[in-house]
Design a protein that fits this description.
One of its GO terms (biological process) is response to heat. With 379 residues, this protein is an alpha+beta fold. The protein has nine helices and 15 strands. β12 and β13 form a beta hairpin. α2 runs antiparallel to α3. The structure holds zinc ion (2 copies).
Length: 379
C-alpha cells in the first residue's frame, strides 16, 4: 500500500466521519496553497486532499480499508470524477475557472469609508440670484469619542479570530463533478474581519461611530438653480471603524416667486395694462430683485410684446454676468363701457376710420408664434 491516508490526516483508523472532516479542515487551512505557496507544502496539500477524498467516501474508504487503493485504479469507478488524485494538481486553475480570480484574499478591514449624505435646502429666488450663506442642521455619523472609532470598550482591544486565525475566511472542500473543489467563504465568527471584539464599546456598540446633529454654515454661490448640488467634502457619514467620512451634498430647491418665473438665468413676468396706456405709453413701477424700477411702456405697445431689462436676471453660475428680466405686456381691452366712454370710443374710431375695419387675417397661428419669438428674442 503506497500511502497511509489515516496517517496523512493524523487520525486513528476508527475515526468517525466527523473527526476525519475536522482533521482535514484543520490541515487544509494550514496547507492551502494560497496561504503557503512553498512546493513541499503544496505536495502535502495534494496528499491530504487525496486522503480525504478516499476516507470521506464510504465506498472508497471500504476499498481502502480492505487493502486496495481506490485512487490508483485508473478510471475504475471514477464516474465523472475526472479530476481524481492525479488531476488534482492544478488546483488554482480550477479555482480560477469556477470562482474567478477576483476573490479577495485576506481579512477585510473594519475601517471603511463612510457614505455620502444628501440634504435639501430651500432658497428664495433672490438668494439663488445673488448667493447667500445658510446654516443647516445635519444629522450624520461621527467618530465615537469613547473608543476613537476602534469599536472596543476602553481598556480592551480587538483580538485575532481563533476560527480563521485572522485570515477572515474559512475554506471548505466540496465535491463537484470536477472532483474536490475548495471554496472559501467569509469566516462566520468574525464576519471576515479576522478579528473579534470581545468587549464592544458601550457608547457605539462596536460600530466606532455615533450619530450626531450639528450645524454647518453653507456658502451658496450666486446662480444656483433647482437641483444644483453643492458638494461639501468630508462632511458626510463617518465610516465604520472610524473610517473617513463621505461627502455631504446640499441640493438646492428654489422656492417659487410670486412675480417672476425663472427660465435658465432669465426671469419672466407679465404686466397687464389698459388699452389706453398701451396706446399712449406709460411707466409702470416694478419691484425687481434689484429694487423698484420703472418699466417704460412706449406709446403704441402691442399686447404680447416684451420689454427686456438687461442684466436684471439671475447671476450666471459660471463666468459671472447676469441674465435678463423680461416683462411681457398684456393689453386689456376695456369692458363695461358707460355711455360717455362708448361715445368717446366711437368718436375715436370715426376719426381713425376704423368704424368698419377689414381685419388682417394670417395663416394659422402666425400671430402667436411671432409673439413667442419676440418674447425669446427680447424684442
Ligand atoms: Zn465607541
Ligand atoms: Zn474569523
Amino acid at each position: 500500500m503506497a500511502t497511509d491516508y489515516y496517517a496523512v490526516l493524523g487520525v486513528r483508523r476508527d475515526a468517525s466521519q466527523e473527526e476525519i472532516k475536522k482533521a482535514f479542515r484543520r490541515l487544509a487551512r494550514e496547507l492551502h496553497p494560497d496561504v503557503n505557496p512553498d512546493p513541499k507544502t503544496q505536495e502535502r496539500f495534494k496528499e491530504i486532499n487525496a486522503a480525504y477524498e478516499v476516507l470521506s467516501d464510504p465506498q472508497k474508504k471500504q476499498v481502502y480499508d480492505l487493502g486496495g487503493d481506490p485512487l490508483s485504479q485508473a478510471g475504475a469507478g471514477a464516474g465523472a470524477g475526472g479530476f481524481g488524485a492525479g488531476g488534482f494538481g492544478n488546483f488554482s486553475d480550477i479555482m480560477d475557472a469556477f470562482f474567478g480570480t477576483a476573490s479577495q484574499r485576506g481579512p477585510r478591514s473594519r475601517t471603511r469609508r463612510g457614505q455620502d449624505a444628501m440634504i435639501r435646502i430651500e432658497v428664495e429666488l433672490d438668494e439663488a440670484a445673488f448667493g447667500t450663506t445658510k446654516d443647516i442642521q445635519v444629522d450624520t455619523a461621527i467618530v465615537c469619542s469613547t473608543c476613537s472609532g476602534e469599536g472596543a470598550a476602553p481598556g480592551t482591544s480587538a483580538q485575532t479570530c481563533d476560527m480563521c486565525r485572522g485570515r477572515g475566511e474559512v475554506s471548505q472542500v466540496t465535491r463537484s463533478f470536477l472532483g474536490q473543489v475548495m471554496t472559501s467563504r467569509p469566516c462566520p465568527q468574525c464576519q471576515g474581519f479576522g478579528t473579534v471584539v470581545p468587549n464592544p464599546c458601550p457608547e457605539c456598540a462596536g460600530d466606532g461611530r455615533v450619530r450626531s446633529r450639528r450645524t454647518l454654515t453653507v456658502k451658496i454661490p450666486a446662480g444656483v438653480d433647482n437641483g444644483t448640488r453643492i458638494q461639501l467634502a468630508g462632511e458626510g457619514e463617518v465610516g465604520p471603524g472610524g473610517g473617513p467620512a463621505g461627502d455631504l451634498y446640499v441640493e438646492i430647491h428654489e422656492l417659487p416667486h410670486p412675480t417672476f418665473q425663472r427660465r435658465g438665468d432669465d426671469l419672466h413676468c407679465t404686466v397687464t395694462i389698459p388699452m389706453t396706456a398701451a396706446a399712449l405709453g406709460t411707466k409702470v413701477p416694478l419691484e425687481t430683485l434689484d429694487g423698484l424700477e420703472e418699466v417704460d411702456i412706449r406709446p403704441g405697445t402691442q399686447s404680447g410684446q416684451s420689454i427686456p431689462l438687461h442684466g436684471r436676471g439671475v447671476t450666471h453660475l459660471r463666468g459671472g454676468g447676469r441674465g435678463d428680466l423680461v416683462v411681457h405686456v398684456e393689453v386689456q381691452t376695456p369692458t363695461k363701457l358707460d355711455v360717455e366712454q362708448e361715445r368717446l370710443l366711437r368718436e375715436l374710431a370715426k376719426l381713425r376710420g376704423e368704424e368698419r375695419p377689414q381685419g388682417q387675417f394670417q395663416p394659422g397661428q402666425q400671430g402667436l408664434f411671432s409673439r413667442l419669438k419676440d418674447a425669446f428674442n427680447g424684442r
